[in-house]
Amino acid sequence: MTATPPPATPPPGRPGDIVLLVDDVPESLGALEQELEADGYTVLVAHSGEAALARLDLVTPDAILLDALMPGWSGFETCRRIKAEPAWSHIPIIFMTGLSETAHVVEGFDAGGVDYVVKPLRAQEVQARLATHVRNARAVRLARDAVDVGGHGVLVVDARSRIAWQSPQAQRWLADCFADLSAGATASPPASVQQAAAAWLAGLAAPGADAALGRHTRVDGRLLVARRLGEVGLGETMWLLSLQAAGDAAPSRLSTAALTPRETEVLSWVAKGKTNRDVADILGMSPRTVNKHLEHVFEKLGVETRAAAAALASRELG
Length: 318
Hints:
Blueprint: E1 18-22, H1 30-38, E2 42-46, H2 49-56, E3 63-66, H3 75-83, E4 93-97, H4 102-111, E5 115-118, H5 123-149, E6 153-157, E7 163-166, H6 168-178, H7 189-205, E8 215-217, E9 223-233, E10 236-244, H8 253-257, H9 261-271, H10 276-283, H11 287-301, H12 306-317
Helix pairs in contact: 2-3, 6-7, 9-11, 9-12, 10-11
């Protein structure tokens, strides 16, 4: 007779990991709180969304377990307010609630939650999900810090033209450039800066946009320049920000198009009057692959025809 294996044990939290439990009836979470503390987490408790934000002013947890249905601010509203603050936006938020309708689950993810657990809670399941999200958030935070140490302004825009992630340097530069434009907005200042910056980038990504639009005046008179690096996920686009002196020449269309080395090679031969078959023979690829590269080139340059791309390349590549 085969013995039944013991239930899987959730990975423990690292010593020092902090979890914030937000629930208007925290007594109902006593068992979960004990399990988390036994795993090595430091557990903080808030009875409302307002109290949760007050806690965040004092300490930044590694994750938040958030009830959706509370007096005052709902969990969804609390999550939106947390995600609107750049200093807190990286914290993974897991909803834990009795609201199980699809509309509620969708609202939780739209508000910025990374997971959704329906009550009654199963402690082992919550622990496993929590450990995974804390680990992933830590990896993202380390990558973000590494980018910032290099002084790079990098950000990612999602399919809905919202800024999904930004390095601290990008955050500082955008705040310098767009704080004045968003001063009259009704949203909180960090959120309105993000909206103004996202609108600027959306204009740059529009077909046929002028590369000069990628220059925005900073408070100190220097110019913030955005360069599109290309797709990094489903509908997500990465941008690289840099500063230039006001007198520097505007970046060329090719320099801001973020062509890959292979796309640049294909375009340079097209500019010399070569056909797709000629380019394929020269570069050792099929004509169909050359055509696919050109489709990407047209999209990145904001042109619609081969002749327009060739003319642009002739001017800028020589």
